[in-house]
Design a protein that fits this description.
single chain
Length: 296
């Protein structure tokens, strides 16, 4: 997630330089075609790029709005996980004082759940959660493909043990179990966002229309600007392409890049909070921003 208010131009160019080169080449081809093939036969009506530009603006606006909705929904889901995690640990620690062994194991297991879920959403191999599990948990997890869901199942069993041992009463059992349900809901919503592909045609057609607009704009402007139409065509196209790329960077909010939801930072924050609530001595450091620009 970006932290700075102003984005460096160099960062934008690093993300778009390949497209910029292709666009300059396309504008050059459009200029040469107009100059040497059609200049003496007919003129391209200026209404064509005007209509195309208006249509593309609507396409890009719609795509970017939908992309941001996906990103914001993902951020809200993980914001809820932060709040529920703190409440879950606080309730266990204070409601089940008579069996702090199981309480500590459940809080540790919840930290493992968050790391396992994060690794799944980012398609990475992040086995840091193993250190928060005992041998029995690791053996049980080996039987499941969905490790984070398996951890919630184990949590439910330990909660039932607390209830049978009268470490918590019925009302508190229901309250803590409701939090496990909310964890399952957040897990499901995260998986839905990750597994629901943004309609390919939206992005593809927008790209096609942008290239068509850049070509026709260069053809029209070259009638009065000459060779400078190549630069002008690239400049106008750069605005549309950069806006499109900016929006599409939010389509997959769990990707491990500067535009994604900062899962590393959020997970580490919850880990620190829960370990401090357990009064642990070894507390990890918060995730630091990269180049003071963004955090992962």
């Amino acid at each position: 997630m970006l932290l700075v208010q102003n984005i460096r131009l160099t960062r934008i160019l690093r993300n778009t330089w390949q497209v910029d080169l292709i666009m300059i080449a396309s504008c050059s081809v459009a200029y040469l075609v107009r100059e040497y093939l059609i200049a003496h036969h007919f003129e391209i009506p200026s209404i064509i790029p005007t209509v195309l530009g208006t249509a593309i603006a609507f396409f890009i606006g719609f795509n970017n709005n939908q992309a941001y909705d996906r990103w914001w929904e993902a951020r809200k889901v993980w914001g809820a996980l932060v709040n529920d995690s703190r409440s879950f640990a606080r309730n266990l620690i204070n409601y089940a004082e008579d069996d702090q062994v199981i309480v500590k194991r459940m809080v540790y297991r919840h930290i493992a759940f968050l790391y396992a879920l994060k690794a799944n959403l980012r398609d990475t191999v992040d086995e840091i959660y193993i250190k928060y599990l005992d041998e029995a948990d690791i053996t049980e997890m080996a039987k499941h493909k969905n490790t984070h869901n398996a951890l919630l199942n184990i949590q439910s069993r330990d909660l039932q043990k607390l209830s049978k041992a009268n470490a918590i009463d019925g009302f508190r059992f229901i309250e803590i179990n409701e939090m496990l349900v909310r964890f399952s809901d957040s897990m499901g919503m995260s998986e839905r966002i990750k597994n629901t592909i943004f309609p390919t045609t939206y992005n593809y057609l927008t790209k096609v229309f942008i290239w068509l607009f850049v070509m026709t704009f260069t053809l029209v402007i070259s009638q009065s600007a000459g060779v400078y139409s190549i630069f002008l065509g690239w400049m106008i196209g750069f605005v549309f392409v950069s806006t499109q790329i900016n929006g599409m960077s939010l389509v997959n909010p769990f990707e491990n890049n500067s535009a994604g939801v900062p899962l590393n930072s959020i997970t580490r924050t919850i880990e620190i909070n829960l370990l401090q609530m357990l009064e642990e001595e070894e507390i990890p450091e918060p995730i630091k921003p990269i180049n003071e620009e963004y955090i992962l």
